[in-house]
Amino acid sequence: MPAWQAWMFGLVPSIGVGLVFWYVMRAVVRSDRNERAEIARIEAADEAREAERAEKAKRDATED
Question: Distance of CA 46 to CAs 12, 17, 56, Å?
Protein backbone atom coordinates (compact mmCIF):
# COMPACT_ATOMS: atom_id res chain seq x y z
CA MET A 1 0.00 0.00 0.00
CA PRO A 2 1.43 3.39 -0.95
CA ALA A 3 2.09 5.89 1.81
CA TRP A 4 -0.58 8.31 0.60
CA GLN A 5 -3.25 5.61 0.96
CA ALA A 6 -2.17 4.94 4.52
CA TRP A 7 -2.45 8.65 5.24
CA MET A 8 -5.92 8.76 3.67
CA PHE A 9 -7.12 5.73 5.65
CA GLY A 10 -5.98 7.53 8.78
CA LEU A 11 -7.30 11.00 7.99
CA VAL A 12 -10.63 10.42 6.26
CA PRO A 13 -12.39 8.79 9.25
CA SER A 14 -11.09 11.47 11.60
CA ILE A 15 -12.27 14.24 9.30
CA GLY A 16 -15.64 12.51 8.89
CA VAL A 17 -16.14 12.19 12.65
CA GLY A 18 -15.08 15.82 13.08
CA LEU A 19 -17.63 16.97 10.50
CA VAL A 20 -20.41 14.94 12.11
CA PHE A 21 -19.49 16.38 15.52
CA TRP A 22 -19.47 19.93 14.10
CA TYR A 23 -22.89 19.42 12.46
CA VAL A 24 -24.46 18.01 15.64
CA MET A 25 -23.04 20.80 17.83
CA ARG A 26 -24.23 23.40 15.31
CA ALA A 27 -27.74 21.94 15.48
CA VAL A 28 -27.70 21.94 19.29
CA VAL A 29 -26.54 25.56 19.50
CA ARG A 30 -29.09 26.71 16.92
CA SER A 31 -31.96 24.91 18.64
CA ASP A 32 -30.93 26.39 22.00
CA ARG A 33 -30.83 29.88 20.50
CA ASN A 34 -34.25 29.42 18.89
CA GLU A 35 -35.70 28.04 22.12
CA ARG A 36 -34.40 30.99 24.14
CA ALA A 37 -35.86 33.45 21.61
CA GLU A 38 -39.24 31.72 21.75
CA ILE A 39 -39.24 31.72 25.56
CA ALA A 40 -38.39 35.45 25.57
CA ARG A 41 -41.24 36.12 23.13
CA ILE A 42 -43.72 34.19 25.28
CA GLU A 43 -42.56 35.94 28.46
CA ALA A 44 -42.87 39.36 26.81
CA ALA A 45 -46.41 38.54 25.73
CA ASP A 46 -47.25 37.38 29.27
CA GLU A 47 -45.82 40.58 30.76
CA ALA A 48 -47.81 42.70 28.31
CA ARG A 49 -50.98 40.80 29.19
CA GLU A 50 -50.33 41.25 32.92
CA ALA A 51 -49.68 44.99 32.46
CA GLU A 52 -52.93 45.30 30.53
CA ARG A 53 -54.82 43.49 33.31
CA ALA A 54 -53.24 45.69 35.96
CA GLU A 55 -54.14 48.84 34.01
CA LYS A 56 -57.72 47.63 33.60
CA ALA A 57 -57.96 46.80 37.30
CA LYS A 58 -56.60 50.26 38.15
CA ARG A 59 -59.17 51.93 35.88
CA ASP A 60 -61.98 49.83 37.35
CA ALA A 61 -60.89 50.71 40.89
CA THR A 62 -60.89 54.45 40.16
CA GLU A 63 -64.35 54.32 38.54
CA ASP A 64 -65.99 53.04 41.73
Answer: 51, 43, 15
Predicted confidence (pLDDT) at residue 61 exceeds the cutoff of 90: no
SS3 56: helix
Residue type, 29: V
Q: How far apart are CA 59 and CA 19, in angstroms?
A: 60
Reported pTM: 0.66
Which residues neighbour 61 within 8 Å (Cβ) at sequence distance 6 or greater? none
How far is residue 31's CA from residue 11's CA, in Å, rounded to a whole number? Answer: 30
- Boundaries of every domain in the chain: 19-64
Helix intervals (H) in the chain: 3-63
pLDDT tens, position by position, 19-31:
999 999 999 999 9
